[in-house]
Specification:
434 Repressor (Amino-terminal Domain), Lambda_DNA-bd_dom_sf, two-stranded antiparallel ribbon, Cro/C1-type_HTH, 127 residues, DNA binding, mainly alpha, Helix-turn-helix transcriptional regulator
Length: 127
């Protein structure tokens, strides 16, 4: 497997996190440390060797400056189009090498390529 290939077992959200981490030239250790999880736990999640808890995913998103936004499936394409319109055409899906309109309904967004900025709504802590 070459260094840019995404492991076959990697889940889509972690595939997107891996693409963003690499685009920012960060090491797995950097993200894991900022997320407060072990490098091994992050490596297993990113490589698809483990099915991490939601708390691990959210911690990794926060470490990368992302906010997780849940959208109804029928609106996912519209949400991604809006993010792309506000972010120079870049969406979570495009970072992971997917064609437009194929992103999941749970869309990581935030600084550095996934949206216009973090939300500070109820239940969310500001970044």
């Amino acid at each position: 497997m070459n260094s840019t290939a995404v492991p076959r077992g990697a889940s889509e959200p972690f595939r997107q996190l891996r693409a963003l981490r690499r685009a920012r030239k960060l090491k797995q250790e950097d993200v894991a440390r900022k997320a407060g999880i072990s490098r091994e736990a992050y490596l297993r999640a990113e490589s698809g060797q483990a099915d991490p808890r939601m708390s691990t995913f959210l911690a990794a998103c926060e470490a990368l400056g992302l906010e997780v936004v849940l959208a109804p499936q029928h609106l996912a394409a519209d949400v991604n189009a809006f993010i792309a319109s506000r972010n120079g055409g870049v969406t979570a899906a495009s970072m992971a090498g997917q064609p437009a309109g194929s992103a999941p309904a749970a869309t990581p967004q935030g600084q550095g390529g996934f949206g216009s900025g973090p939300s500070t709504g109820e239940g969310h802590k500001p970044m």
